[in-house]
């Protein structure tokens, strides 16, 4: 957790402030269409006042656009844009990739294409790993977001994991309250099923046994079966998203530590050259 309040709260707004700002901007748009403002400067002043009043000035800004409404007519309208004080992330990423590539290849030029010292080999090998993993990362971040969107199960896989754990906790809690004989009938539900066919088979078997030996617990059996099936369905439906996220994590576990180690070796090399 970030301890300093300024950094913790920078770029944040109160819950509901975004919706309130948007609603107020639409009210201003209605006034703009009626000609309530004399010029663009007055419109923007009113829009900025709305953004600042609702406390969203750190995360979004108002922009005035001219929209073509047909038949040679235009209309001015206010819109909200995400504020980016340090520029677009794509620009920083492209600069990072360009400078990183030149720096990695510059190691060889700096050594006159002759590696005679362990530090030189360390810098060369580390640079090549950073360069190769950087290219792989650029490809991953080009295709993975699109695949994640296509694999959308209607719930983020992180939230699905929390929901699965909640279902599992509920099932385990209910089983712990049952007598030993009835608990044995429901015990298979505590373990996740591997396929939908297994869920169907398990449900039929559990309901059949409960109907014969404990008919008074049929409603409880249905509730537990629904929870178990929901838990398993969440696991299957988010499998692709979790796999893509795992690829990105593996990439970060390689690229970032090697990059940090490479910077440390470079700093050590520069210090050694200046010292000696």
Describe this structure in words.
With 276 residues, the protein is mainly alpha-helical. The chain folds into three domains: 78 residues, no CATH class; 100 residues; 81 residues, no CATH class. It contains ten helices and two strands; from the N terminus they run αααββααααααα. It has a two-stranded antiparallel ribbon with strand order 1-2. A hairpin with a 2-residue loop joins strand 1 and strand 2.
Present the secondary structure layout.
Blueprint: H1 5-9, H2 17-33, H3 40-53, E1 60-70, E2 73-82, H4 89-110, H5 118-150, H6 157-177, H7 180-186, H8 196-213, H9 218-237, H10 239-275
Antiparallel strand pairs: 1-2
Helix pairs in contact: 2-3, 4-5, 5-10, 6-9, 8-9
Task: Characterize this entry briefly.
With about 280 residues, the chain is mainly alpha-helical. The protein has helices at about 5-10, 15-35, 40-55, 90-110, 120-150, 155-175, 180-185, 195-215, 220-235, 240-275, and strands spanning about 60-70, 75-80.
């Amino acid at each position: 957790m970030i301890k300093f309040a300024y950094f913790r709260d920078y770029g944040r707004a109160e819950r509901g402030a975004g919706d309130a700002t948007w609603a107020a901007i639409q009210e201003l748009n209605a006034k703009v269409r009626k000609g309530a403002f004399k010029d663009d400067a007055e419109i923007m002043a009113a829009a900025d006042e709305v953004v600042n009043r609702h406390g969203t000035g750190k995360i979004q800004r108002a922009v005035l656009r001219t929209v073509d409404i047909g038949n040679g007519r235009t209309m001015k309208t206010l819109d909200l844009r995400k504020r980016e004080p340090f520029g677009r992330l794509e620009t920083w990423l492209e600069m990072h990739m360009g400078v990183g590539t030149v720096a990695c290849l510059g190691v060889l030029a700096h050594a006159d294409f002759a590696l005679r010292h362990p530090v030189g080999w360390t810098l060369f090998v580390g640079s090549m790993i950073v360069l190769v993993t950087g290219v792989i990362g650029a490809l991953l971040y080009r295709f993975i977001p699109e695949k994640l969107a296509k694999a959308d199960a209607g719930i983020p896989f992180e939230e699905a994991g929390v929901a699965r754990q909640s279902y599992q906790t509920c099932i385990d809690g209910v089983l712990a309250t049952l007598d030993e004989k009835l608990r044995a009938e429901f015990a298979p539900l505590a373990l996740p099923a591997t396929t939908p066919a297994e869920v169907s088979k398990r449900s039929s078997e559990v309901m059949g046994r409960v109907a014969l030996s404990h008919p008074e617990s049929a409603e409880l059996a249905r509730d537990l079966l629904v929870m178990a099936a929901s838990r398993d369905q969440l696991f299957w439906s988010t499998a692709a998203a979790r796999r893509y996220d795992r690829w990105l994590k593996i990439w970060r576990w390689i690229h970032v530590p090697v990059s940090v180690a490479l910077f440390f070796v470079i700093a050590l090399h520069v210090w050694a050259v200046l010292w000696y």
